[in-house]
Design brief:
alpha/beta; Rossmann fold
Length: 240
């Protein structure tokens, strides 16, 4: 599911330290997929890019994330992409005290496929149309993950259904979709909007399933605006 490097931290230098933004990658990915967005958010506070240890099963990752986030002195803003978004929801439900705000990029889990084959054809079309530079990164990370991890993650994503858990998410949530996402179509966002108590949706016109790589400027700006939204009114600023 990722490399053995556990985290990369980028810190800003704007004086007051806001909550950390923790970013979690998806299936067959790595923290490098978030690097472009993190670089654009470095002045807004610390950004931590987690690499999920490859030996972990998908069912074990949420507990691993919780242990890592517990190391922080205050709640974090948690961002996850695809499978990482699904796992981030599990953290937000299981330990709401650890998550101040939640960012879900192209999250699966609202419409179970039953089999990874339900994602196979859309994923193949996405790969064929991807940029050559990103295709090299995708191939490299996929090889590092290995076929067993890819298969386990694929079955986990295909069978996941978190709709019953969404009402338990207390953190304000930003949903982000690429308008051209063929893997998890933007039409699935409606189920998330209906299930989450406090959610808003941003659709990025020029992006597909991986807005972090395809439209990093737009995604970074959406995250920045969401994190700054109504801090005083909501009373969810960093603990003193």
């Amino acid at each position: 599911m990722g490399s053995n490097v556990t985290a990369v931290t980028i810190r800003g230098g704007n004086g007051r330290e806001p909550p950390s933004l923790v970013c979690v990658h998806g299936l067959s990915a790595s923290s490098r997929w978030w690097a472009g967005v993190a670089a654009r958010l470095h002045d807004a506070g610390p950004v931590e890019l987690y690499d999920v240890p490859r030996p972990l099963r998908p069912s074990e990752v949420a507990a691993w994330l919780i242990r890592r986030i517990e190391e922080h002195a205050s709640p974090v803003d948690l961002a996850g992409h695809s499978l990482g978004a699904l796992l981030s929801v599990q953290v937000a439900v299981g330990r709401p005290d650890l998550v101040r705000r939640l960012v879900l990029v192209s999250p699966p889990g609202a419409r179970p496929r039953g089999s990874p084959l339900g994602y196979a054809w859309p994923l193949a079309r996405t790969i064929v149309r991807t940029r050559p530079g990103f295709l090299v990164r995708l191939t490299y990370d996929g090889l590092r993950a290995g076929p067993r991890n890819l298969a386990r993650g694929g079955f986990h994503v295909a069978s996941a259904d978190v709709t019953a858990d969404l009402a338990s998410v207390t953190a304000p949530t930003l949903l982000v979709w690429g308008a051209h996402d063929r893997v998890v179509p933007v039409a699935e966002a409606q189920a998330w909007l209906e299930g989450l108590p406090d959610a808003r949706l941003v659709v990025i016109p020029g992006a597909g399933h991986v807005p972090m790589v395809e439209s990093p400027d737009e995604l970074a700006e959406a995250i920045r605006m969401f994190r700054e939204e109504g801090l005083d009114e909501a009373g969810d600023g960093p603990r003193m």
